[in-house]
# Entry
Amino acid sequence: MSSAAERREQILGRIARAAAVAQRNPADVQLVAVSKGRSAEEVEALIGAGQRDFGENRVQEALSKWPPLLERFPDVRLHGIGRLQSNKAAEAVMLFGTIHSLDRRSLLDALVKEAEKRARTPHVYVQVNIGEEEQKGGCRIEDLGELVGAVRASPLELAGLMAIPPLGAEAAPYFALLAKLARRHDVNGLSIGMSGDFEAAVMLGATAVRVGSAMFEDE
# Structure
């Protein structure tokens, strides 16, 4: 059994090697530990190992787990990475410094309203439905320019684009497509890559990778 610190160092090493292949600085890649379904004790072990960025899929789970941790560890940054309902905008703005799943104008309007009310301005990634899957969140590729423009006109900070390739498909072509869309719309950040494909994501320009099982379990 490896420790939280050992698992984290292994992941950082793999990121560094992938970055070297792509002639990138590994410091330009943010490692987000996906802590959904993990206990406060598991999270705290990773915090003790130096991890500071964590991602949660559901607002309710984050509310039940994170407020005491954030009070004890104020330098930890919490990311909202799951599909977000507009009626959860108030909680999301209070909890998350970065939201990776902005995919529609109505959600942007709800986040802006709550951000102005609470004097908090989270960073947001625009999620793109890169595989054009009906059941998956994300804006349509043809609507991306309009949504990116709306974020830029808002008080929120545009962090970049996010996408999740179709399950079971080779991820690299979808990562490459998202990178191309980012260049087309003059966007720098790319939130791509999870436990099974984060090295490919780093080589194709990821600035944030969302790693869950590999951070918390022996592979």
Summary: The chain has one domain: 4-216. Strands lie at 30-34, 53-56, 77-80, 98-102, 123-127, 157-162, 190-191, 208-211. Residues 40 and 117 are 30 Å apart (CA to CA). Residues 4-216 form a domain with the TIM Barrel fold (CATH 3.20.20.10).
